[in-house]
Please model this.
Amino acid sequence: AEIAYKVFNSASVRALELAEALAGTGDLHDLVEALRTARNVQVFGAGASAVVAFDMHQRLLRLGVPINFAEDHHNQIAFAALMQPGDIAIAISYSGRTKPTLQAVEVAHERGATIAAILGKNGSPLEKLADIAIVTPPGLSLFGTDAVMTRILEMMFNEVLFHCLALQNPTML
Model:
């Protein structure tokens, strides 16, 4: 019971810290506006972050957002190579250092796409490439649970994006 309390308490505190951080910047507004007006959206993520990327893809696709996600690294690079100004690439990475994700983002950046990053740590190469960076707050870690907690926060952030877009345009539902 003590471990359950610590895990759930940590998740709750971090979720509230993320909400406060989002309220203190224009990053959420900028990302929602970029998604609302984008010609094309590509989501990049590898490994466990691919689960969050796929969840974002499914949620936003239901709203009619022109969004693509491929788990295969080669397909992510191919999608990135087709991007252009007016498009948005959203990279999801706990460390911000995952090579396949960074490669796709670098290609999208070279093609003129807006880059958004959903991250678990500050100061990464991915954060430096991003026009919009959402970094989940750090928390107390119980035997390596920080990456898992970050994914949970990122999934919750997907829900925030979904609702922000749906409330701006109820015809999307």
Notes: The mean pLDDT is 92. The CA atoms of residues 18 and 59 lie 20 Å apart.
